[in-house]
Amino acid sequence: MLPLHLSADLLRIPSENGSPVNEYRIHHGEIEFRALDVQGKPFIHSAGKWKVLDLPDLQLHFSLNTVVAQWLLGRLHTLLYPRQDFSPGTA
After folding, report:
1. What gap in Å lies between CA 74 and CA 32, rounded to an integer?
2. Domain locations in the chain as residue ranges
3. Residue closest to 11 by CA, chosen among 83, 88, 73, 57
């Protein structure tokens, strides 16, 4: 089983009980999805092609409060509220 992988622009949800590995990414302003086999390799029939998630797909993730929705909210939060480092004596 591949471990959960999380970065700013990529989320990998590992396989459980032989189910596919799900990957989500932000690419050129779109949110995309693809399924991989248990070892994290592309399936032969899809060749690892990415599918753009449409509005109903995204609405479903947010209404169910999935890991994908939480990842996207966290990503949005970092974009809206970038971390600012403050040094003592500066303000």
Report:
1. 17
2. 5-80
3. 73
